[in-house]
Design a protein that fits this description.
Pfam families: DUF6464. The protein is built from one helix and seven strands. With 127 residues, it is mainly beta.
Length: 127
């Protein structure tokens, strides 16, 4: 049912996290998680926090609006899909943090390509 409801678009307000400045309102057909990126007025922002507003309708509470608290950030150019979500960097590396916010401890700014510390993750380490 959530998928049908989201296809119509969920009202979403976007605020800068540091000063609560309202950047705009969007209609989203997906639920952005912290670490994901959204585009507002041709600028890229990283989602830091997501807050929900619910309404009581027809005997149940339903998600009616989302507020996103963001900071300006370029969209990462190195991403990989790991366990159903996008993470920064090469998820096959032993040192990858498997996070939407942090690449790794060895070279957090990247890039992963050509990193001297790259070490392949063993198959048993991948749950």
């Amino acid at each position: 049912m959530t998928e049908l409801w989201l296809s119509a678009g969920l009202p979403t307000d976007v605020f800068l996290a540091k000063n609560q400045q309202h950047l705009g309102s969007l209609q989203l057909d997906w639920l952005p998680q912290p670490g994901s990126h959204v585009e507002v007025a041709d600028r890229s922002y990283a989602v830091l926090e997501r807050r929900h507003r619910y309404q009581y309708r027809a005997g149940a509470y339903r998600l009616s609006q989302i507020s996103l608290y963001v900071q300006a950030a370029p969209r990462p150019n190195e991403r990989s899909f790991w366990q159903g979500r996008w993470v920064i960097g090469d998820s096959s590396c032993l040192y990858n943090a498997h996070s939407e916010l942090l690449r790794c401890a060895v070279q957090p700014e990247g890039p992963c390509a050509g990193c001297r510390s790259y070490e392949a993750r063993s198959p048993e380490a991948n749950p």
